[in-house]
Design a protein that fits this description.
The structure holds 2 protein chains of 2 kinds. Helix content of chain A is about 0%, strand content about 45%. Chain A is mostly beta strands. Chain A is globular, with a radius of gyration of 14 Å. Chain B is an all-beta fold. Chain B is globular and about 35 Å long. Classes of the chains: A mainly beta, B mainly beta. At the A-B interface, strand 3, strand 4 and strand 8 of A face strand 4, strand 5, strand 9 and strand 10 of B.
Chain lengths: ~110, ~110
């Protein structure tokens, strides 16, 4: 499975847009990109998933360039409650089989300041 | 919100005790997982299951065991707890790959 590289930490202020980039140079043709959010002492929570171009939901947007070797999670107008660890995962999408081995790295610690 | 539950939320126990961490989901998911996570570190997959009577070890060697007798239930057992087992244990389930639903976790402390 393709591993990913993300910044260890990022800081932002309330109301700003935050972009977290993830590198996945070894992404396979049928791999999807998925992002999770984790608050302290809780399990990760699914945010968004995409295969190419742009995906948007009520929480975030995911931008994937044509070569798919990286992706960017965009959080619009962050608030203090967005302070969390964000994980980028790459692996087979719906219908695929990972044999259970989904790799969560150390993620990116986003801290939002007032 | 996902309907996956872990109990207990916190557990402090002495060395040598046998413990079982409970995990239940009401979504009918076939796939279930156990991850172990230390503070500020990555999640490590220790066990997973594709369905009833199906269990596999994950990437991180663990002295724990699991069972899957019912679809909704995936308990994890430590026969003899040691201080090195102190960690957060996260249970998850999924219907499709990479849309995992996690429980709130069990924080285990072994004295």
């Amino acid at each position: 499975l393709a591993k990913t590289t993300q910044p260890i930490s990022m800081d932002s202020y309330e109301g700003q847009e935050v972009n977290i980039t993830c590198s996945h140079n070894n992404i396979a043709t049928n791999d999807y990109i998925t992002w999770y959010q984790q608050f302290p002492s809780q399990g990760p929570r699914f945010i968004i998933q995409g295969y190419k171009t742009k995906v948007t939901n009520e929480v975030a947007s995911l931008f994937i360039p044509a070569d798919r070797k990286s992706s960017t999670l965009s959080l619009p107008r962050v608030s203090l409650s967005d302070t969390a660890v964000y994980y980028c995962l790459v692996g087979p999408g719906p219908g695929g089989s990972t044999l259970g081995r989904l790799y969560f790295g150390r993620g990116t610690q986003l801290t939002v300041w007032p | 919100e996902a309907d996956i539950y872990q109990t207990p939320r916190y557990l402090v126990i002495g060395t040598g005790k046998k413990i079982t961490l409970e995990c239940s989901q009401t979504m009918g998911h076939d796939k279930m997982y156990w991850y172990q996570q230390d503070p500020g570190m990555e999640l490590h997959l220790i066990h997973y299951s594709y369905g009833v009577n199906s269990t596999e070890k994950g990437d991180l060697s663990s002295e724990s065991t699991v069972s899957r007798i019912r679809t909704e239930h995936f308990p994890l057992t430590l026969e003899s707890a040691r201080p090195s087992h102190t960690s957060q244990y996260l249970c998850a389930s999924s219907e499709e790959n990479e849309k995992l639903f996690f429980g709130s976790g069990t924080q285990l402390s072994v004295l």
